[in-house]
Amino acid sequence: MRQAMRDAYWDRIYELAKNDRDIVIVSADFGAPSLDKFRRDFPNQYINTGISEQNAVLLATGLALAGKKPIAYAITQFITLRCFEQIRIYPCGMDLPVTIVGVGAGACYWESGSTHHSFEQLSIMRTLPNLETVNCTDCHMAKEAADFTVHASGPKFIQMDREVIDGIYRGTIDFKKGYSFLTAKNENMVISTGNMTKEAMDILNHAELDFGIMDIYKFPVDTESLKAELEGVKNIITLEEGAREGGLGSYILEILSDYEIRIPVHRIALNTYDGYAASYNYGGREEIRKGYGMGRKDILRVIGKEFARQ
Amino acid sequence: MKDIKELEKKARELKEMVVRMTTKAGTGHVTSSFSCAELMTALYYGDILRYRPDDCKWEGRDYFILSKGHANPILYAILADLGFIDKKELDLFCQPGGKIGVLLRGDIPGAEITSGSLGCGLGIAAGIAQALKSDRKPNYVFCMLGDAECREGAVWESAMYIGYAQLNNLVTIIDRNYLGATHFVEEEAGIEPIDDKWEAFGFDVRHINGHDIGEIMEAVGDVRCIKSKKPLAIIADTVKGNGVSFIENIPFMHGVAVKPERMEEAIEEIGKGSKL
Fold first, then answer.
1. Regarding the domain with residue range B4-272, which homologous superfamily does it belong to in the CATH classification?
2. Does B118 touch chain A (CB under 8 A)?
3. Residue A262 distance to chain B (closest CA, Å)
């Protein structure tokens, strides 16, 4: 069944909550069709704080200190940056089992503009101690992330896309490893995250290009095993619908640098340095990507050029 | 220990401990500690808070959340005095090899949270109170805020939540010392009418003299018997640096330790007792 990521996630949380009274949802005035039954059947495990993200994270912190497994929920942009300091000091600094769930990866709220766009989240959140970030690739992963939320210790940040993306993953997802090859390994690898993994697969299926795809879905990844997997790779293009500064591309470069691996990396990301004007390009997500220099044509051009360069 | 005179004596002892540890370190929020010294003494020694020093995570404990983490010297003095931590730690306050420093650290037994960034404690206290209420547990949560801290927006997000959710197992205490770090609150960034604000957010408000242990005991001593559905807010009028004339009510004494050459003078003044 085609399902939004958040519905896949909350449906699974609903199942888990049947046997776990410590799961508490703290929503900052944000819903999902699948949350209605949770509210109905577990009213003592559902809190709506209203539009107050700082309080939502603090409340979740207190709940965790008293033994609960709180899940703070809102649009990604608000439940990360508005309350970044609270997340930094409490769930992360005190290493508490608080999960932050945000819907709205990248520019998926394309009609809303920059206030609702989540461009800097990966860059910023991955600097936090103890935090494990899952950038969901498809709805199956979102469902699996529910089990990860409830069963793993420590703080987590689960970012979801609004678009229905499915059919990429099945079975158990290895959140410790944090990445997977979606094709056979190739000398030319596109390393992508979030919704751009689907984009990379579409490009591979429809263009006359030969490359491999690796999806990074959890930050940090198991870098030791990733290092070994990159043996033999000669060219990397990173692909993300987020700010170039500090995002997936930077992360890959940091890993390569730390291990002194010399592979050329070309980063495809949103060029947001000059401002958010392109967030107000209307007509769909592609219009926004184009405005920030990473429309489908831009991506094809870069892949063609970089992977032909041998 | 419920005898008022005994509690007053204990407050003076704790204040002396604060002066000694901070003067030795040459830093620490002495004045912030002194404004809430009697409040803290009443909570910990007046049979208000329930705790076990040898089991800081005891399930039956009440939670004390120090939102104004700057006042941690007085909390550390109490935790050492009661045996949560070794008294030797006070001598190592802010020194190499020590565990405790200028702001509150969450992994110190009895501290409950890391604190120092203002405006955070009340929401955390609310989360704990909510969890206790959901599980029908009888524990209480006490949260101490500074008055200047009430300029933080998050305080009011949390206050609105607490009032609406009627978390009457949470007692919010505002140390109303009328001083921020550098300014007199009502002269530059006022918060009046402060009682009305808390009342408007759904709290029962008791306004007391925060240095008068008798008044404190009267206001907080009976919280477990209160039948009101509303949460309780105590606005406690205090003086920053209370009891030592040369640090009292002086804006730029915030975060400043008494100089070694004046330490004995300060301790002598503390011994004489403070004005109410």
1. Thiamin diphosphate (ThDP)-binding fold, Pyr/PP domains (3.40.50.970)
2. no
3. 42
Q: Where are the beta strands (DSSP E) in B106-248?
A: 141-146, 170-176, 204-209, 232-237
Q: How far apart are CA A147 and CA A145, in angstroms?
A: 5
Min Cα distance B272 → chain A (Å) is 40
The architecture in CATH of the region A179-307 reads 3-Layer(aba) Sandwich (3.40)
Q: Residue window 1-60, chain A: list those with CB within 8 Å of chain B.
A: 24, 44-45, 47, 49-50, 52, 54-55, 57-60
Residue A130 contacts B, CB cutoff 8 Å = no
In this structure, which CATH number among 3.90.1640.30, 3.40.50.970, 3.40.1440.10, 3.30.70.360 belongs to the domain A5-160? 3.40.50.970
Chain B nearest-CA residue for A56: B123
Which is nearest to A229 in space by CA: A277, A160, A181, A170? A181
Q: What is the Cα–Cα distance from B77 to B92, expressed in whole angstroms?
A: 12
B141, B65 in Cβ contact below 8 A? yes
> pLDDT tens digits, residue range B167-189?
999 999 999 999 999 999 999 99
Cα–Cα nearest to A56, from A35, A29, A76: A29
Question: Is A94–B160 a contact, with Cβ atoms under 8 angstroms apart?
Answer: no
Residues of chain B with pLDDT under 70: 1, 274-276
Please check whether residue B260 touches A, CB under 8 A. Answer: no
**pLDDT digits 0-9 by tens, B82-94:** 999 999 999 999 9
